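Here is a complete protein record:
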Amino acid sequence: MDIHRTIHDALKACPSPEDRWRYTYELIVGAAASLLSAYPYYVGTTHYGHKKRYDTPQGILSDLLLKADEEATNKGEPLNLYFDGLKDWTAGYFFNSGIVRIACAYEYTICTARGADPFDTAKFEAVCNSLKQESPPAAIEQLLDVIKCFRISGGTEGRKRLNDTVDKLVDQFHFEKQPTAETIYEEHGNTEAFAKTAVLFVWADYNWFKHRPMGYSGAGQARERPSVQYALALRGYRALCDLYSWCFWLKRNSEQ
């Protein structure tokens, strides 16, 4: 399975945006660019059972970035963010950027389909329910159910329970000791539980970004293995593109 081809095919399946759909589409494109940028180094980490250990101490991170900038200037080339010592940090940066955009685009896709404010959480459940009345494909109906559950997981305890749920779902799959993102996605990508885990994963991390410095619940969980993270994010991205395409065409057909 070619990860690049999977992302490209999902992107091509999204209809061209028009007017109010443009920002949603740009989030989707940004998520694709981020996952593609993260892939070369992010899934290669072998310390899968522990929190990611960077070779670069935080105190000299800025120095390395300045060195990369100096090298680029001397060579007359663009800045190389995969400069020695920055590879892990850069891959993590792009990956985090990707999952935040995936989660944001879920909100914008669902709410744009009904002309609702994506930040009006009080109406979010009603919007999901109204979309389900349009007889969506089974996979998309599952996504609407998963997404809606986040609205009842507020507060610190709610986010902890959400992370625990993700960890338990990931542990169901009994991954090999050092799997690749390709093999995980290829084996489990079409299963209902894996799709649910993928959506929960990107939303749990999105919540983490929104509520810093709350952070993750515990360390060393299965979902923190880089290859597992990437496979889940890839499945979440594929599901997002399917949801976007369905909502877009649903709205367009209703206007004709």
In short: The chain is about 65% helix and 0% strand. Residues 185 and 191 are 10 Å apart (CA to CA).
